[in-house]
Amino acid sequence: MVSSSAMARNYGEKPSTSSMEEDLEIEQSMRNASIIDHQYEPEHHKDYRVLNAFDPADKSTYSDMIHIDVPDTKTLVERSDGVTKYTAYNIHINGWYHGSVRFSNLYEFAEHIKQKFSQKYKGPEFPAKKLFKLDQKAVDDRRQKIAKYFQALVQHPEIARHYLIEKKLLGFQIDSFRATSQYVSLDIYLGNGEKTTIKCLVSDSTLEIMRILAEKLGFNNKDEFIYHFGLFMAKGRNPSAACYSVTPDNFNPLLTRFLRNFEAPFVSLSTANQKYNENGHYNFLCIRKLIWDTRIEESALNDGTFVELMYKQAVQDYKNGHLDPVKEDLECKLKSCMQRNDKIMFLRTCHLLPTYSYEILSPCTCDYPKPGTPCEIKFGRRQIVLTTKDELGTTKQSLFRATRIRVWRITQIVDKVSFQFEYLMAKDTFEWITLETDQSILMSLLLQSIGSEILYEHNNMSIEQQVMKEKQSKGSYVEKTDKLPRDPKKPIIVLKNAVEETDPLGVMEHYHNYNRMLTTISDGIPQRNQAFTDITNDDL
């Protein structure tokens, strides 16, 4: 029998809070559910590959995963004499060019790993040096061996989590960029299109840039700022219109990339605009809120600096029509708050809107309710929302709550990459939902951020508070205690490749087959966590 939550999904309604009896059975459903996956049965697609799969309920997983690809090579000239040529291996991370690295530097890195982790690493050896010059076939063979080495290397969490990986990736990017100046100015746009310029080093990582920005904006608690906001690369929403400058009047960012600490934002932005801009459609850096529940946002309203930054984004989203539809009485209230410059009341009024606090991504194609359905998609409020039209042209919304997603994965058929998530549609029944989009990696990172917030909220509640929340899950209880500052060295969500001995998704079979280096590494040391198994009635 289909639950009321699953039925509501068909009619664009928010699923109601399920009964305690049903919620207590969700964990069992996660283990025993049958799986519906109509469109992507491997036997129907010989080129089908699972590139990455993430299991938010796995206690042994780790966080902040990235995708690495080594698709080809290029010939460069030595900086020392400007004549001698050498082959460099192009590294792409999260779907974007990262840097071109010569073999000797990669070999040096592999030797360092061997010295430090010789007793822990079990896998293919890094390709040996050759005394003679390689032809193109031998170069490609070496590239594939390098890919297999890194693929095996990052399957060892104690190695993949080490700071050396992050440091080396950052170094590879900086060396490849060949900057002409060490000190630069970097423009970062706030939520309303207001430009803030900071002074930094070309080599400053994302975390260092965020700390510099937090200080300039006046945040006393830099860690809280770094946790609640993210640094993104974005572009204008109209691909046919050139965008040479960004102003508050035209600011309506479409996120393209979530910057991580293995990269230098100045270099990433410069490289992207050299390689990927089309018809003057340039990328820019912007700060976006990473708060996915209005209760979390409510607890931050006592900090004027947080209020200022959240207010700017909320007003711009309202002006851009991202909060539509808005009821007449609430719209009058929003306009009144803007006239009085009552920022806190404006945000609290936004909290009453079910359309508030979403990131609207590019339109894509999904297989729900049937394959090939065009849809608009947005992430927010701890859920994914798909907007589609039926045969009669009637608009319908389908809501997928993050706490009912058992696993998500990024797949590829030939050159088409898709984002898939396995959703608890009914009691004991999961269904794979497939989105054909070029933003698969961004979706994965946003979903990780949502899960991170859920875990952080639960980990910072006392046992008494969790019991109170459980008992009052059907009432209006809202946790309003002051949140503890986040320790930046302690990740707060655990996610990994769903590659286990049981291999329920058949991931390992596909991992052995695909011909590109596409894998994951971690930003920091993980903590063992109950992950999504600690969710209470309110969350389900």
TrEMBL record:
Ranges for domain PX: 67-176
Superkingdom assignment: Eukaryota
InterPro entries hit by this protein: PH-like_dom_sf, PX_dom, PX_dom_sf, SNX17-31_FERM_F1, SNX17/31_FERM, SNX17_FERM-like_dom
Alphabetical GO biological process terms: endocytic recycling; intracellular protein transport
Keyword Transport tagged: yes
Region of interest (Disordered), ranges: 1-24
Keyword field: Protein transport, Transport
One Gene Ontology term of the molecular function aspect: phosphatidylinositol binding
GO cellular component, one term: early endosome
Pfam families: PX, SNX17-27-31_F1_FERM, SNX17_FERM_C
Protein transport recorded as keyword: yes
PANTHER family: LD15323P, SORTING NEXIN 17 AND 27
Family: Belongs to the sorting nexin family.
Identification of the protein by name: PX domain-containing protein
Native species: Caenorhabditis tropicalis
